Amino acid sequence: MRILIPLLLSGLLLAPPAFAAPQDDAATPAHAQSSASMSSAALDITAGGISRAEWMAAKPVLARHAMVVSDQHYATEVGLNILKQGGNAIDAAVAVGYAQAVVNPCCGNIGGGGFMTIHLANGKNVFLDFRERAPLKATPTLFQDAQGNVVPGRSTKTWLGVGVPGSVMGLNAALKKYGTMSLKQVMAPAIKLARDGFVLQPGDIKVLDTRTKDFAEHPNVAAVFLNHGQPWKAGEVLKQPELAHTLELIEKGGSKAYYDGPIARAIVTASDKHGGILSLKDFRDYRVVWTKPLECRYHGYTIVTPPPPSSGETVCEILRVLAGYPLPKWGYGSVQTTHYLVEAERHAFADRNTYLGDPAFVHNPIGRLLSTANIARIRSEIQPDHATPSSEVKGSLGAPEGLHTTQFSILDAKGNAVSVTYSINYLFGVGMMAGDTGFFLNNTMDDFTSKPGVPNSFGLVQGHINEIQPGKIPLSSMVPSIVLKHGKVFMVTGSPGGSTIISTTLESILNVVDFGMNMQQAVDAPRVHMQWYPDEVFVEPGYLTPQTRAALEQMGYKFKTMPAWGADEAILVNPVTHTIEGANDRRRPAGLAAGY
Ligand code: DON
């Protein structure tokens, strides 16, 4: 089944968890309830390789002033140093973004795109969309053959799958608008890491090993990501001189070097040579979009989350439905919580896949989807005692009108917060580089609807609204989010994981707000996910007990256990003590939360 591939790519990152050493009990937030709401599930089952007792004892990294969390420890340290040098959260985010492109080449990137959600200490919330766009020569049937069948692999393994990248313009635009440091200052650590190299840790090797075979297919990739034809080993130093050169071009020439200079030329030359459709005009025309994030309320908290072309609406729709039920009383992982969470997700994904797309091209009926009437209707359609087949759930407004990624979260001492998810879609994207540019290009074109009704790599069955059009941005699931309490930062959260990003991010919020978990418990807790189609509920090991599974199966649910998915890199500010909790997801052992 196609959805397995990218999910397993994320899951392969699983390893014995790297829990922070338990710290003093002050780490338990004052807002946290007793663990009673979590204990309804059995205590001795495993959560993706760890015992439930171990997961429940998990403690976050604590800090007084500022925090950086990312899924690669060198990148976290880069961000922390920028903050300690007096940079703000935006400076740090840009530095982490460039550093991730070096030390986390599967996911961190300058060949893809993403989203940045920003909360400024002055109270303003802003959103930056630097997602990839369809090339100008793209057509709705790009990935179909003459008979109208979707050609497997065309959107993921060929140059046709490459969208016009936005990461460089996005990072540079964020720095220019809200940063305080120069591009030279924030790029220096990334350039050094690329030129001098960095020591690979077991967590890095696990990620590289997922595509070792593919690296051998392209000499320019093998030259960097294989060591004389052999896989890299832990303890060895990975140097990337070509990437260092590319980064220096950007550092000196700014975005122009990428979009109207040697880098665009190298990409277009390689694309032409290998049957792609990218043009120099695609790069010259590329623009980022500054806009307002979506905001919704849940139990007194404000969730600040991406608008279309991403899926913050889906997060809000699920939360709006769930607000009508006593989740804290029912508890994490209980039959009722799971039932209502899964049904809310089923409806919200049906709406997402039917009505959402790039707002520059299609109308997104956000107001109607989140309206009290629509939420009440969804609640009324949820049967209290059984699962509703997905075939009976349609987008709720009638006909529409119109394995990769990485998350990092930063909070500075002034109260500015940045949540970034950016991606090249699969781990190592399309698996190809242009000439000697030294970086992987994305295969994000697969996020478009290749054909209405045919699932994409993440199993998402999407409609016309998200069909390919020149210059359009594909609908995304990436939802870098910030949760505010009384206008101040309470949480910074987000994750990779394709379609599961939405539930992973949402569950990190529920786990804290409703189930009283600390930040580390909340990201480590086993997850549950439903996305309308396929009509199955994905669960990580440890989410269900034998009893809850039996009860939910009686209600008509079909479960599929997946090894693990996502990597929520999150921050929580205790509203009473102001202690900052940082949590690197145990599913990313190379990651790190660090603060001061
Ligand atoms: O934007 C999206 O929804 C996807 N391109 C994200 C891909 C992803 O998270 C891959 N990681 N597992």
Describe the structure.
- With 596 residues, this protein is α+β, with helices and mostly antiparallel strands.
- It has a domain of 205 residues: Gamma-glutamyltranspeptidase, large (L) subunit, C-terminal domain (Serum Albumin, Chain A, Domain 1), CATH 1.10.246.
- 34% of the residues lie in helices and 14% in strands.
- The protein has 22 helices and 21 strands.
- The strands form 5 sheets. A 7-stranded antiparallel sheet has the order 3-20-19-15-14-11-10.
- Strand 5 and strand 6 form a beta hairpin.
- Helix 4 packs antiparallel against helix 6, helix 4 runs parallel beside helix 7 and helix 15 crosses helix 20.
- The radius of gyration is 22 Å and the shape is globular.
- The N and C termini lie far apart (45 Å).
- The N terminus is likely disordered.
- 6-diazenyl-5-OXO-L-norleucine binds next to helix 1.
Computed structural class = alpha+beta
Span of the ends, CA to CA:
45 Å
| Sheet with the most strands, sense and barrel status | 7 strands, antiparallel
- How many helices? The count is 22
Q: What's the pLDDT, averaged over the residues?
A: 90
Low-confidence stretches: 1-47
Q: Mind telling me the CATH class of the domain at 1-64 and 312-355 and 363-400 and 511-569? A: Mainly Alpha
CATH topology assignment of the domain at 1-64 and 312-355 and 363-400 and 511-569: Serum Albumin, Chain A, Domain 1
Radius of gyration: 22 Å
Provide the CATH architecture of the domain at 1-64 and 312-355 and 363-400 and 511-569. Orthogonal Bundle
**Looking across the biggest beta sheet, what order are the strands in?**
3-20-19-15-14-11-10
In CATH, what is the homologous superfamily of the domain at 1-64 and 312-355 and 363-400 and 511-569? Gamma-glutamyltranspeptidase, large (L) subunit, C-terminal domain
Query: How many strands appear in the DSSP assignment?
Result: 21
The small-molecule ligands in this entry are:
6-diazenyl-5-OXO-L-norleucine
- The percent of residues in helical segments reads 25-40%
Strand content: 5-15%
